[in-house]
TrEMBL record:
Catalytic activity from the UniProt record: a quaternary ammonium(out) + ATP + H2O = a quaternary ammonium(in) + ADP + phosphate + H(+)
Signal peptide: none
This protein's UniProt keywords: ATP-binding, Nucleotide-binding, Sulfate transport, Translocase, Transport
GO molecular function: ABC-type quaternary ammonium compound transporting activity; ABC-type sulfate transporter activity; ATP binding; ATP hydrolysis activity
Subunit structure, interactors included: The complex is composed of two ATP-binding proteins (OpuCA), two transmembrane proteins (OpuCB and OpuCD) and a solute-binding protein (OpuCC).
Organism the protein comes from: Paenibacillus baekrokdamisoli
Gene Ontology cellular-component annotations: ATP-binding cassette (ABC) transporter complex
Domain ABC transporter: 3-233
Family matches, as InterPro entries: AAA+_ATPase, ABC_SmlMolc_Importer, ABC_transporter-like_ATP-bd, ABC_transporter-like_CS, Mo/tungstate-bd_C_term_dom, NA-bd_OB-fold, P-loop_NTPase, Sulph_transpt1
Origin: domain of life: Bacteria
Protein name according to UniProt: Carnitine transport ATP-binding protein OpuCA
E.C. no: 7.6.2.9
Any Pfam family the entry gives: TOBE_2
Keyword Transport: yes
Amino acid sequence: MHIEVRGLNKQFGDFHAVNEVNFEIAKGQLIGLLGPSGGGKTSILRMLAGLETPTSGDIIFHGKRVNDLPPQERGIGFVFQNYALFKHMTVYDNVAFGLKVKKQPKDQIRDRVMSLVELTGLKGFEHRYPHQLSGGQRQRVAFARALAPEPQLLLLDEPFAAIDAKIRSELRTWLKDMIERLGITSIFVTHDQDEAIEVADEIMIINKGRLEQKGSPWDIYKNPQTQFVASFIGESTIVSQVDRLPGFEEAANWTGTQALIRPEYIEIGKRHEFRMPSATVEGKVKHIHFRGSEWMIEVEVGDIKLITYRSLEKDVLQPGDKVNVLIHRAYLFNDNDTWIMENKLKEDPMPIHI
């Protein structure tokens, strides 16, 4: 299903939950609606589903305006955060529920249900009740039930929120594989960056009811278009007076400019570890944190605090150690624009200290 949203607004009294949102989604894409709690993600999802009525704007499915269509006529499957399974029904009957409502023939219902039971990895659990299943299994039942009527659009509201971390990771991979096989257009809401980046073909960043940016996870991470997106995606440090950092003095030419510096754009170590030590600045290790596959290190450069990573293969640094810090690049932003600035001193022969 191809989806187009034009000038979508939703107000609850004086509160503007969704504010002039516009986007298109191609058929078969898996889209992640990502943003902070209360940003408007679920309101957008519920309007697409027909569970909320837009204050203004148009929702268009395959060229047809559907604002006035009831949910059951939109060709949508909806997976809720809390599963919303019928406790008194078996797995089989939960999955079959929508098909029975449509009064499909029993043999067709049986074939469809058993096909979905196998697809979702629930074969052998057909006669169990929800309380006899794990959280991951219950969520798979919810997926199967949503897919049973063969919807053209699958909507998922924080589908992994109620599941523990290990199972959540497994379900992410499973969901992406399943949706790719089915080719069904899908939109899921999440506030988990890792989840959106791992699962989605494209991400839409929603903040304060507005669409901040839409694009692939890589594009959004590498080329944030707004200050909010730059600070929301990934770990980073905001530096107010970036022109005080060696190599970034040109930032003083733009009034009100700040910088966002990501950990992977910072190298730290002893002077002998750098091919171009003259491009570095002195710093002091403040804290170190073991992250399993690497160290996360907080380092102070003057009164500027930065965060970076260091390989376990390198010598272990300790709090208080004096180190050299190389900042390769930074995202600069002001009220009007965002751009990337490279360190201008990588070829400068003179060491600099601040």
